[in-house]
Amino acid sequence: MKNGVQRFAADLVLVTGLGVSYRIREYSAPDEGDSSKGTVSENKSTLKDTDAVVETETGTGKKTRSQLTTLCYIEKGDSYLMLHRVSKKNDINHDKWIGVGGHFERDESPEDCLLREVKEETGLTLNGYRFRGIVTFISDGSEAEYMCLYTSDDFSGTLIDCDEGKLEWIKKADFMKLEHWEGDAIFLKLIEEDAPFFSLKLVYTNGCLVESVLNGRKL
After folding, report:
1. How far apart are CA 118 and CA 71, in angstroms?
2. C-alpha 29 chain-centroid distance
3. Nearest-CA neighbor of 25 among 6, 16, 12?
4. 69 close to 101: Cβ distance less than 8 angstroms
5. Computed from CA positions of residues 80, 86, 89, 90, in that sequence, does the dihedral angle turn out positive or negative?
6. What is the pTM of this model?
7. What is the pLDDT of residues 48-66, one digit of tens each?
């Protein structure tokens, strides 16, 4: 995105044409029995914790935490490398076909997380990639997840077995035949249309997509 600023997650991330910078709000809850409202401090340069607090409910000490993740769709010709999530117990993605990625670790940038997760899950090294958008997931009142979405067709290495499921090259035209999250079809369509950098909000209730908002407008 050139000469523009994409605001996301209540000042959590500023995406500019020059890259990504972080503005993290950290919350200190009051001690037990203390009626004070606690304090909020701000760090504008470093992502200090995977679960950095971005919103609070003052007066109660209750904290609303965000989850920061990455997801990458690796492309080869007319296919995506996809992960069939069948290995982990109590996996919210169980039996779904998704891209590869995961949660930020301490002090990681989105790109750090992307490269590490792809290497860990697939054995591949990304030599190039595109940052396609931010996806906000809301599900049944749980903590919001903010996902940095990437694609790559420039990689090297040999595929390895993944302990989270089975990796397969899936033809893009066959994706809709597979078990998947309904919202994934929306952002994959945007990717296939080569849409400019986007912000997509997906709201789920009981596993069903009930609302989708693209760049602030309901779909």
Report:
1. 9
2. 27
3. 12
4. yes
5. positive
6. 0.71
7. 333 443 333 434 454 443 4
Percent of the chain residues past pLDDT 70, beyond the cut: 69
- Give the residue carrying structure tokens 């000042």: 11
Instruction: Select from 186, 164, 178, 171 the least CA-distant residue to 94.
Output: 164
Per-residue model confidence (pLDDT) at position 148: 98
pLDDT at 14 over 70: no
pLDDT tens digits, residue range 161-205?
998 889 999 999 999 999 899 999 999 999 999 999 999 999 999
pLDDT for 159 equals 96
Burial track 173-193 (b if 16+ CB lie within 10 A, e otherwise): eebeeeebbebbebbbebbee
Q: How far apart are CA 176 and CA 194, in angstroms?
A: 19
Q: Residue 102: how many CA atoms within 13 Å on its side-chain side?
A: 17
Contact 69, 149 (CB under 8 A): no
Asked if the model's pLDDT at residue 104 lies above 50, the reply is yes
